[in-house]
Amino acid sequence: MAAIDVALREIAEALGGELIGDGSQRIRRIGPLEDATADSIAFLANPRYRSQLATSIAACVIVAPALRDEAVARGAAIVTPDPYLYFARLSQWWAPRARCAPAAGVHASAVVDPSADVAATASIGALAVIEAGATIGDGAVIGAHCTVGAEAQVGANTRLAAHVTLGFGCVIGERCIVHSGVVIGADGFGFAPTEGRWEKIEQLGAVRIANDVEIGANTCIDRGALGDTVIEDGVKLDNLIQIAHNVHVGAHTVMAAFVGVAGSAHIGRHCLIGGAARIAGHITLADHVQISTCSLVTHSIAKAGHYSGAFPIDDNASWQKNAATLRNLHALRERVRTLEKTSSERRDSASITPAPSATDSKAV
Q1: Burial level of 149, CB count in 10 A (0-12/13-18/19+)?
Q2: Could you tell me if residue 226 is inside a domain?
Q3: Residue 160, SS3?
Q4: d(CA 235, CA 212)
Q5: Is residue 32 within 8 Å of residue 42, measured between CB atoms?
Q6: Do the strands 305-308 and 314-315 form a parallel or antiparallel pair, or are they unpaired?
Q7: If DSSP codes are grouped into helix, strand and coil, which group holds residue 39?
Q8: Is 178 exposed, middle or buried, given 0-12, 13-18 or 19+ CB atoms closer than 10 A?
Q9: How many CB atoms lie within 10 A of CB 6?
Q10: Which of 152, 186, 250, 274 stands 20 to 30 A from 195 (CA)?
Q11: 174 and 232 housed in the same domain
Q12: What is the torsional sign of CA 7, 13, 16, 17?
């Protein structure tokens, strides 16, 4: 990592926000509030950590307008409507200054087929393999031990970390980030049963990934059986996710770790899928659907909203009520048993009480 030493005003000039305090202050680190050093810039986005603001020794704190006075009372501040977004953009501005950019060109140990089209500004790492007819765009980075299959395409400024496999005929767009261990374009899981065994269905489609997509480590995206598996613009996939054949993921959808999406599912745009959720095959999720962690989605969801549960999935509000009832199910069962016993005893008591005689009636 390269050493960073910038004036605070350089950050404000690049990213905006209202800078209050000494713009010549040197910033060498981005740090959290609680352990920031005197040359750090920190941010406060969650009110839960407000108590740390007064005691932090950070050189500058990024805050929302509501915390302006508190931040200024302790030192320099950058005031912005969304501190978390500002932090995200600061990290993007910071990263290229902190990391050593790979040199353009092809490493001596890489194997590049003569028919491949590799841009002069691309970087091909050690022991990478670029197969026949593949295309590598301007500024793309192909890490060590990567394989880019025949006729595959990598868009401009896309970065494949070490040990990524992009299968034959698959396409990934511009400005994407693919972390180590990702496999794009393995065969989908397709077999036809016959006489007690399984006959392989060749997977003849590909994978098409659009622009600005990020794919976490060891995630797998299978090629389509006939058509293509499609990942639209801006999708973000965490580590260890399985996307099966012919799945379609809409733009700007986000999935956390361990999500599994079965074949031919269609997930809408701007969806949020919690960790370890499972999406059944051949169903559709509407745009703006949020699935809670560990939920099992077994049917299509046509309306935007927050859905949870595995017994079965329901809208979140209904699921929370059912979950609360489930926690008290044993106590409810005991109450029902007690009521049934009391009711039975009353019926038995009534059945053995002698009826009043005629004489008793007259006496009354």
Answers
A1: buried
A2: yes
A3: strand
A4: 7
A5: yes
A6: antiparallel
A7: coil
A8: buried
A9: 16
A10: 186
A11: yes
A12: positive
Residue 245 annotated to the active site: yes
Instruction: Assess contact for 62 and 83: CB atoms under 8 A.
Output: yes
Q: Quickly count helices (H) and strands (E) in the chain.
A: 6, 40
Task: Please say whether the beta carbons of 90 and 96 come within 8 A.
Answer: no
- If one counts every other C-beta atom within 10 angstroms of the C-beta of residue 97, the result is 12
- Mind listing the pLDDT tens digit of every residue in the chain (364 residues)? 678 999 999 999 999 999 999 999 999 999 999 999 999 999 999 988 999 999 999 999 999 999 999 999 999 999 999 999 999 999 999 999 998 889 999 999 999 999 999 999 999 999 999 999 999 999 999 999 999 999 999 999 999 999 999 999 999 999 999 999 999 999 999 999 999 999 999 999 999 999 999 999 999 999 999 999 999 999 999 999 999 999 999 999 999 999 999 999 999 999 999 999 999 999 999 999 999 999 999 999 999 999 998 877 789 998 888 888 888 888 888 889 999 888 887 877 777 656 565 555 454 4
Residues 6 or more apart from 321 whose CB is under 8 A from it?
none
Same-domain check for residues 159 and 286? yes
| Alpha-carbon distances, residue 34 vs 31, 37, 44, 294 (angstroms) | 8, 9, 11, 32
Q: What is the CATH number of the domain that holds 30?
A: 3.40.1390.10
Structure tokens at 242: 């399985």
Question: Contact 110/96 with Cβ under 8 angstroms?
Answer: no
227-263: string of b/e by CB count within 10 Å (b at 16+)?
ebbbbbebbebbbbbbbbbbbbbbbbbbbbbbbbbbb
Strand partners, 63: 79
List the Cα angle 104/182/130 in 5-degree steps.
40
| Domain co-membership, 147 together with 230 | yes
pTM of the predicted model, to two decimals? 0.86
Instruction: Mark whether 60 and 145 lie in a shared domain.
Output: no
Report which of 169, 135, 170 is spatially closest to residue 155, judged by C-alpha positions. Answer: 135
Domain, as residue range, for 52: 6-98
Which residue in 245, 252, 266, 270 is the catalytic one?
245
Q: Is the dihedral of CA 84, 85, 88, 89 positive or negative?
A: negative
Q: How many other C-beta atoms are found inside a 10 Å radius of the C-beta of residue 88?
A: 12
